[in-house]
Automatic annotation (TrEMBL):
Keywords: Methyltransferase, S-adenosyl-L-methionine, Transferase. GO terms for molecular function: methyltransferase activity. This is Class I SAM-dependent methyltransferase. Pfam families: Methyltransf_25. The lineage of its organism: Bacteria, Bacillati, Actinomycetota, Actinomycetes, Mycobacteriales. SUPFAM superfamilies: S-adenosyl-L-methionine-dependent methyltransferases (SSF53335). One of its GO terms (biological process) is methylation. It comes from the Bacteria. Its EC number is 2.1.-.-. Residues 65-147 form the Methyltransferase domain. The keyword Transferase applies. Residues 1-29 are annotated as: Disordered.
Length: 208
């Protein structure tokens, strides 16, 4: 079990949207367009934890795909670590903010308002998906995006969902990738009314 303490303001319920009542792409765009900022601007603590234990060679050029990038905090952090990042989201406003965040931090990311299903024959050294609205049918495409020797980091809230793909079901359906580990990442979000405890489920897999 991994733990972390994260600070957040009262307008930021989490780094990405919870899928308890996952909205449509149009609703997500409306949410971004209606708010000056949705997320904290800090990279997800579960990402930092997961990447730290991967033993990557920082001297080698690496490509990364952030599926459901939101306002770009994770993508920008990866770019700051030397990754060549493609960041995608269905919400154009979120993508624009991701581009702006990258510029503010002096890094470059390729941010696009597209679906990961739109990529043909593209492969990345790292694919991350945090709290995404994927289904079981998306697993083959998700696996196909990971390059030889590459990694997949898939994270969701500790919850039950029949509609959306959860780490436990992804673990059962992996055919092209090898499971490295899966674990619970616990974090404390401190905001407004005090500390709130959250549990995220993390899955890491790799293509040999």
């Amino acid at each position: 079990m991994h733990t972390d303490s994260t600070h957040s303001d009262s307008n930021v319920p989490g780094h990405h949207n919870s899928a308890h009542h996952a909205p449509s792409a149009a609703a997500m765009e409306d949410r971004y367009a209606s708010n000056e900022r949705v997320w904290s601007g800090d990279p997800n603590a579960a990402l930092l934890n997961a990447v730290a234990g991967m033993g990557l060679d920082v001297a080698s050029p690496r490509t990364a795909l952030d599926i459901g990038c939101g306002e770009g905090a994770d993508a920008v952090w990866l770019a700051q670590q030397g990754w060549q990042v493609t960041a995608i989201d269905h919400a154009p406003t979120a993508v624009r903010r991701a581009q702006e965040l990258a510029a503010e931090n002096g890094v470059q990311i390729d941010a696009r308002a597209v679906s990961f299903q739109d990529f043909e024959r593209a492969m990345f050294d790292l694919v991350i998906c945090f709290f995404g609205q994927l289904s079981d049918d998306d697993v083959p495409k998700l696996e196909s995006l990971v390059a030889p020797g590459g990694w997949l980091i898939f994270v969701h809230h500790d919850m039950e969902s029949e509609k959306y793909l959860m780490p436990a079901r992804l673990k059962e359906q992996l055919t092209e990738l090898e499971l490295v580990d899966d674990y619970v990442f616990e974090k404390n979000l401190e905001r407004g009314g005090g500390a709130h405890h959250h549990r995220d489920l993390v899955l890491r897999a790799r293509r040999s």
